[in-house]
Design a protein that fits this description.
91% helix; mainly alpha; 2 domains
Length: 110
């Protein structure tokens, strides 16, 4: 009979430990949910993006290179072909724009 009481008390202790562990994990889960819900708010996403942008010189450099190459390609297309209605000229203009943008992006990196 004492053997059954001993097993019962051990089971009670194990159940109490598991319930305590469950309670602790549930509290941790609630804290993580609060952190996650705060981090996915649009204003926080925008704020984090701007902080990353201002602290990353590589990102600024890449953005500048991309802007310069796209602008150069666009301007070369407009200067050479203007507002052409010809399908052939539009196609050549688009190819020229892509080529100039690619060329400028390679030269800016070097």
């Amino acid at each position: 009979m004492t053997w059954h009481k001993n097993q019962t008390s051990e089971l009670d202790i194990m159940i109490a430990r598991l319930e305590l562990e469950k309670k602790i994990k549930f509290e941790e889960l609630k804290e993580q949910l609060a952190i996650t819900s705060e981090s996915i708010k649009p204003i926080n996403i925008i704020k984090d993006t701007f902080q990353d942008f201002t602290h990353s010189p590589d990102l600024k450099s890449n953005l500048l290179q991309t802007a310069v190459s796209i602008t150069g390609g666009y301007l070369s297309k407009k200067l050479l072909f203007g507002k052409s209605k010809s399908f052939f000229k539009k196609t050549i203009g688009n190819l020229l724009q892509y080529g100039v943008a690619y060329f400028i992006s390679k030269k800016v990196k070097a």
